[in-house]
Amino acid sequence: MTIFDDLRASHEILRGLARTMTNARASADHRRAAFLALALELDAHATAEERHFYVPLLMDDAGLSVSRHALADHHKAEQLVEQLRGVDPATDRFGELAKQLSAEVRDHLDEEEHGTFQLAGKLLSKPRQKQLAREYRVEYAKRGGQYAM
């Protein structure tokens, strides 16, 4: 497996949790649980991804811009998570912020899968992609990520 395989698997978990968190038909408790799981998953994913995907890309001039953009996306998502932490999931405010967070996450994941991964595939050798996957998995699991690797 390469780093791309692991990132895609984590992306699917993130998308599913974001869908549940924004599902208006789900109970407030169910949306809150999805949000809390999403917050934990985002932290595990972003930390491992930054250390074991974006830092190596930052070492190449061709990867600077895309890496900086991704790190800014991560920061925006972190800010939205913090705003949501104290909001009652039964309120309109929760729904609004949850939709913003969901959109931010989906856009970021789509950008990675349809642009960043292609660039990284050119910059990182196959052996390096496999090494980064192993390092990513360790960091991700240590931070509580739920993707079973």
Explain the overall architecture:
The protein has a single domain (3-142), classed as Up-down Bundle (Four Helix Bundle (Hemerythrin (Met), subunit A)), CATH 1.20.120. Helices cover 81% and strands 0% of the residues. Helix 1 packs across helix 5 (126-142) and helix 2 (28-58) packs antiparallel against helix 3 (64-84). The protein is mainly α and 149 residues long. The model has no long low-confidence stretch (mean pLDDT 95). It has helices spanning 3-21, 28-58, 64-84, 92-123, 126-142. The chain is built from 5 helices and no strands.
Chain-wise SSE layout:
Elements: H1 3-21, H2 28-58, H3 64-84, H4 92-123, H5 126-142
Helix pairs in contact: 1-2, 1-4, 1-5, 2-3, 2-5, 3-4
Please sum up the structure shown.
Helices cover 81% and strands 0% of the residues.
Distance between the termini: 10 Å
Question: What proportion of the residues is helical, as a percent range?
Answer: over 70%
CATH class annotation: Mainly Alpha
Helical segment count: 5
CATH superfamily membership, which one? Answer: nmb1532 protein domain like
Based on the coordinates given, report the CATH architecture.
Up-down Bundle
- Residue runs with pLDDT of under 50 for 5 or more positions: none
Order of helices and strands: HHHHH
Strand content: under 5%
Global shape: elongated
Radius of gyration: 16 Å
Describe the sheet with the most strands: none
**Whole-number average pLDDT?**
95
Number of domains: 1
